[in-house]
UniProtKB/TrEMBL annotation:
Name of protein: Uncharacterized protein
Active site: 424 (nucleophile)
Compositionally biased tracts (Pro residues): 29-44
Record keywords, A-Z: Methyltransferase, S-adenosyl-L-methionine, Transferase
Species whose genome carries this gene: Carpinus fangiana
Source organism, top-level taxon: Eukaryota
Stated family: Belongs to the class I-like SAM-binding methyltransferase superfamily. RNA M5U methyltransferase family.
């Protein structure tokens, strides 16, 4: 089984900040004059530096950002550093990339009225939408596309969704920026990113009574933002149909309306195809930095069946450089996780914010027992494959995509020696990490942090676990000297 390797990189400093004060519009704030009756303070308290400050007019009302100053260093970083030090990882590195205009993917609620639409995020703890036309986190072209959408809503009298009544036309909009344009120099691609607009429409399908307004709004966006317009910021327009009264943004039905159907991004050194229904990282630059530490993946297990098409399109561009077997499987890894663990020498997990499913944690903890059981078993791998009857395993095999060379039977009983954990939820990662270490089946070898969401208390963590307890975690001697015999 080919390995999923970590590339060798030069050692990086604890924190890397690539911010430049020249990208900020700052204003001079003179220090307050002392009262006439008091002498000047010889040691005045310095004002906060604006070099890495958010300076966003929506900060007080919007729930998106929670940290206004020192965007390059989330306050949670101190806790993370101490946590890793306590479990034997003293060199926890942290990279901070672009601090403003970094968000290339945004899901925004559409509320208000046709004459005065509100397009933005919910106010903290409520379902009151805060309009955020000048968001400093958004890629500038997302803000431009939102303004164009606002004009279309007003001009065409499109009714925003009313949660209380369940009425209206436009519920949400997803804006996704692709910076994949090889005709431009690399330094210009980000600035000239094009926006895929996905309109979440309050109807069952494209044949519903309000479909005329949907098509009119899509045509407005394409006419005023497409390739023949002066702006040319719209990549494509999609529709998603959702009538549920719950908080789920997307429904199950999608329709491509205008523009390019394929949405490509170049991250980790390869071209990636992403459907509007696929999960995509909002901070593509930071994600690219993370991926360049990883070289190969062998088996992809995904619960979202719609990602199969994206995988196949991506695989078509990889065929000429494939040196190993790469496969995609539509399955829920929380069901019989051992069936996916066996036969892999490296596991890469990238769970949602809630962390790993307990069944997967339990399977990872029990690897030593699995190894002992495998050594005592004489059943051939081929007979196991032949006798497999579990329906979810059979369905995953039937609905799989295989590229590259087939896996040899010699590797089919291998158990992983490396676990790579990519985390977007700090609290759940700590819990999963402690569970893995407590089993003594794994030890943490190294960890890297990434500033995926400047202005928030969220950090992305790339942690590398190795099998066994590890040298640094063995019990220390008490330090008491033995008494010499008399």
């Amino acid at each position: 089984m080919p390995r999923f390797l970590l590339s060798t990189l030069p050692p990086s400093p604890l924190i890397t900040c690539h911010a430049s004060s020249g990208t900020l519009r700052t204003r001079h704030i003179p220090p307050p004059s002392p009262p006439p009756s008091l002498p000047p303070n010889p040691n005045p308290t310095p004002l906060p530096s604006l070099t890495c400050a958010l300076q966003c007019s929506h900060f007080q009302s919007c729930s998106g950002c929670t940290q206004e100053l020192n965007l390059h260093r989330p306050t949670i970083l101190d806790e993370a550093t101490e946590f890793f030090k306590s479990i034997g990882v003293s060199k926890f590195t942290f990279d901070s990339c672009k601090l403003w205009g970094w968000r290339c993917r945004a899901k925004l609620a559409v509320r208000g009225s046709a004459k005065s639409p509100l397009i933005g995020l919910y106010e903290e703890g409520t379902h009151n939408v805060v309009d955020i036309p000048h968001c400093k986190a958004h890629h500038p072209n997302i803000n431009a596309a939102v303004e164009l959408l606002r004009q279309g809503i007003v001009e065409l009298n499109v009714e925003p969704y009313d949660e209380d009544q369940g009425t209206g036309d436009l519920r949400y909009v997803q804006m996704a920026v692709t910076t994949y344009n090889t005709s431009l120099r690399a330094s210009e691609r980000y600035r000239n990113g094009k926006v895929q607009v996905a309109l979440v429409w309050n109807s069952r399908n494209e044949n519903s009574y309000n479909s005329d307004k949907l098509n009119a709004l899509a045509n407005f966006l394409w006419r005023n933002g497409g390739p023949k317009s002066n702006l040319h910021l719209v990549h494509s327009v999609w529709a998603n149909f959702q009538t549920s009264s719950n908080n789920i943004i997307f429904g199950n039905r999608w329709r491509h309306l205008l523009g390019e159907k394929d949405f490509w991004e170049h991250v980790g050194g390869i071209d990636i195809s992403l459907a509007p229904s696929s999960f995509g990282q909002a901070n593509t630059r930071a994600f690219d930095v993370l991926l360049r530490k990883l070289q190969k993946s062998v088996r992809c297990i995904e619960i979202n069946k719609e990602s199969k098409v994206s995988f196949e399109k991506t695989a078509d561009r990889l065929l000429h450089i494939i040196e190993s077997s790469i496969s995609w499987h539509h399955a829920d890894a929380s069901k019989e996780p051992r069936s996916w663990i066996v036969g892999s020498d490296v596991i890469v997990v990238d769970p949602p914010r809630k962390g790993l499913d307990p069944s997967l944690v339990d399977a990872l903890q029990s690897i030593p027992r699995m190894e002992l059981k495998a050594k005592s078993s004489f059943e051939s791998p081929r007979s196991k494959d032949k006798d497999e009857k579990r329906p979810w395993i059979l369905r995953a095999r039937e609905d799989s995509v295989q590229i590259g060379s087939k896996t040899t039977s010699d590797d089919s009983e291998a158990l992983p020696e490396t676990l790579i954990y990519i985390s977007c939820g700090w609290e759940s990662f700590k819990e999963d990490c402690n569970s893995l270490l407590s089993s003594k089946a794994w030890h943490l070898e190294k960890a890297h942090g990434y500033n995926f969401f400047p202005g928030t208390q969220s950090i992305e963590v790339l942690a590398v676990f190795k099998r066994g307890q590890g040298v640094g975690l063995k019990k220390k001697k008490s330090g008491k000297k033995k008494k010499k015999p008399l």
